[in-house]
Design a protein that fits this description.
CATH architecture: 3-Layer(aba) Sandwich
Protein name: FCP1 homology domain-containing protein
Bound molecules: magnesium ion
Organism: Candidatus Shapirobacteria bacterium CG09_land_8_20_14_0_10_38_17
Number of helices: 6
CATH superfamily: HAD superfamily/HAD-like
Strand order of the largest sheet: 3-2-1-4-5
Strand content: 5-15%
Radius of gyration: 16 Å
């Protein structure tokens, strides 16, 4: 990268952007489990029992969670272009180990300047808002429509994009070079 140019800072959600949903588990059930029942209110549930957390941990074993290769290749490309990249995942504290193992196995542990995990088990949208405000990112990629809508309302400095396994990082973004 040439000197004097602004360094572009880009953040990524993990699940649904870099990590695919686990196969065999229907998406609707996953969402129900993480989101609780209310449709209108933005609230995500924390698995309260030990058994529930154990199941959640097991379902995050790296072989159950395939990588979204196209997005990952794109992310690595941005890194080569000199962008500063940040991972902002609202995975709860009990998934820290599984998350770090996943990143290591997929050789992504050196791609990000910093990995932010929700270690204080806050509500995911609040956690992401806090981190985004602190990082002052230029762009953020997220697969949860409700979080995208929330962040768009609260954060004006970053451009927030909705992406997922079917709707990859928008090609138009490839023109925005560092
Ligand atoms: Mg996600």
């Amino acid at each position: 990268m040439k000197s004097g140019k602004k360094i572009v800072k880009i953040g990524f959600d993990l699940d649904g952007v870099i990590v695919d949903k686990p196969f065999l588990i229907p998406k609707a059930l996953l969402e129900r489990l993480s989101r609780g029942k209310q449709e209108n209110e933005l609230h995500y549930r924390y698995p309260k029992t030990k058994l529930e957390r154990r199941i959640r941990k097991l379902s995050h074993f790296y072989l159950f969670r395939p990588p979204l290769r196209q997005n990952i290749n794109f992310i690595k490309d941005l890194k080569k272009q000199g962008c500063k990249l940040y991972l902002v995942s609202s995975r709860y504290s009990f998934l820290k180990r599984e998350t770090m193992v996943w990143l290591e196995k997929r050789k992504l542990n050196n791609v990000f300047e910093k990995v932010f995990l929700n270690l204080n088990d806050k509500q995911p949208h609040l956690f992401k808002r806090e981190v985004l405000e602190r990082l002052n990112l230029d762009y953020f990629f997220e697969d949860d429509k409700r979080i995208v809508d929330y962040l768009k309302k609260k954060i004006s400095s970053a451009k927030i994009y909705l992406v997922n396994s079917k709707q990859l990082i928008p090609p138009v973004f490839k023109d925005v070079k560092a």
